[in-house]
Design goal:
- The chain has an 8-stranded mixed sheet with strand order 6-8-7-12-13-11-9-10, with helices on both faces. The protein has a 3-stranded mixed sheet with strand order 1-3-2.
- It has 17 helices and 13 strands.
- It is globular and about 55 Å long.
Length: 476
């Protein structure tokens, strides 16, 4: 669904925002049993529609007025309950909105509902034990991906122009691969994290799902910026992320090969760690396509590539322990839950969160174990400095999203290194990355989508959008 087409329809008053949201809600009714949503408030949708219609009548409308979206249920909202996918926080009401939500609400956007997710973003299946398992958009037996698996369904079915989730270790890019959608993870600190329930505070970023790269650039223009309430945001000059679209890489020379001069970094270790041949062949095809557009391929070396998944797990689990342990106070001091003790708090958590919670507790508890955490932090700095040197040689790094194809949703014994090895690179370093769908493997009963991701330098989102736009225009 193109965002500009919807804007023209609303601007010339051919469609009212109320009618548009009513049409989408009717389409959703048949698929509510598939657990894509946790909360839908119909009265709040009406209020938002009335506000957006007022803006249209006063000619104060923007590109995003009256356009419906859905958010992951980890962003704090005043009018709708925020659960973070956990039964500990069921019926939990916040008294403030997240900063980027306030920006979107002022523009007159319509929030249809809050999507399903893994409990506290821990997991990669969106198999929620309390709110139910979300089905894949093509096949119900396969995974929807995680942890932002509920946000991708309506975007993949062309019912919404975009949806918003969070990315900690590939939670935006991995589910976008499984439902044939573009997943965008910006630089750490570009979008404010105020109002986001934190899983790993040093790696959490707000991400965007869409089928069109122009939709992502328009949303990023309105969301990004400095926030006083969040100390990790950067006070930079406001830029337009659509400025490089339909332009050459050098911006001044005219050439039929629009990406001539682009240098792509590829490591040989990317191919050694792939467990499925179809993933490797897809990656080779992608690099050939880039060479056809005029790009050069340079071989690079990444420090501690074999230990990336373990570094990510150590840092994320120890930060999760400090972030989740505060919720036990609800069970200790609330009158309703006074009869419950700490054991009941741990029993109410899912299997994935329990595992991460106790690993984090073990790592932080004693001074001996803290050395492991501090060593992983030092290794993280070395990886970060290595990537700074890599971007002196090349402009982007191209790599696969996961080392295997899509799996069964009930397969809990899957090795985490298969899933997080390639996606956690940009979270450990804080670099921006985009996952792009590239190929569809058709079988008798189902389809398997394949794709790749590109990682750019800090605050090079406009360049990444330019590359994706050119690639999609020529090959997809």
């Amino acid at each position: 669904m193109n965002l500009l087409k919807l804007y023209y329809l609303i601007y010339f008053k051919k469609i009212k925002p109320f009618d548009l949201s009513k049409f989408i809600l009717k389409k959703i009714e048949n698929s509510l049993f598939k657990n894509y949503f946790i909360n839908i408030d119909y009265n709040y949708i009406k209020k938002q529609c009335l506000y957006s219609e007022k803006l249209v009548l006063k000619n104060k409308n923007n590109l995003l007025t009256g356009i419906p979206t859905s958010y992951k249920d980890i962003f704090s909202t005043k009018n709708i309950d925020t659960t973070a996918g956990s039964r500990i926080l069921s019926n939990y009401k916040t008294f403030y909105n997240a900063t980027f939500l306030n920006k979107l609400n002022n523009l007159g956007i319509i929030n249809i509902g809050k999507n399903n997710m893994d409990e506290f973003c821990v997991g990669s299946n969106t198999f929620n034990f309390y709110f139910g398992k979300t089905d894949n958009s093509t096949n119900k037996n396969l995974t929807a991906g995680g942890s932002s698996g509920g946000s991708t369904y309506l975007v993949s079915k062309n019912l919404l122009p975009f949806s918003i989730g969070t990315d900690t270790g590939g939670s935006v890019r991995q589910p976008s691969l499984f439902s044939n959608v573009i997943g965008f993870k910006p630089t750490y600190g570009l979008i404010s994290r105020y109002g986001v329930f934190s899983y790993s505070s040093s790696m959490d970023t707000v991400g965007i799902f869409s089928k069109n790269i122009l939709n992502i650039s328009i949303v990023l223009n309105s969301i990004s910026g400095f926030d006083v309430k969040d100390q990790t945001t950067f006070n930079l000059v406001k830029e337009d992320y659509t400025r490089y679209l339909n332009k050459n890489w050098f911006l001044n020379k005219i050439d039929y090969k629009k990406l001539k001069g682009l240098k792509i970094g590829v490591s040989k270790k990317f191919f050694y760690n792939i467990y499925n041949f179809s993933v490797r062949s897809n990656m080779e095809d992608v690099l050939l396509n880039f060479e056809f557009l005029g790009a050069k391929i340079i071989f690079i070396y990444i420090f501690f590539f074999d230990f990336l998944a373990t570094i990510y797990n150590i840092i994320s689990s120890s930060e999760l322990y400090s972030n989740i342990s505060k919720y036990s106070n609800k069970f200790l001091f609330d009158k309703i839950y006074f009869f419950l003790n700490k054991k009941n708090f741990f029993n109410s958590l899912s299997i994935n969160t329990k595992n991460k919670f106790f690993i984090g507790n073990y790592l932080i508890s004693s001074n001996k174990n803290k050395k492991i955490f501090l060593l992983s932090k030092k290794m993280r700095i070395l990886i970060l400095e290595n990537f700074k040197k890599i971007f002196f040689i090349c402009d982007i790094v191209a790599l696969p999203i996961i080392s295997c194809n899509i799996w069964d949703s009930l397969n809990f014994n899957l090795n985490k290194n298969l899933i997080d090895k390639y996606t956690c690179i940009s979270n450990i370093t804080g670099l921006p990355s985009i996952s792009i769908p590239s190929k569809i493997l058709n079988f008798k009963k189902f389809k398997i989508f394949q794709g790749f991701q590109i990682i750019g330098n800090y605050f090079s989102e406009a360049r990444l959008i330019q590359i994706v736009h050119e690639y999609k225009k020529n090959f997809l």
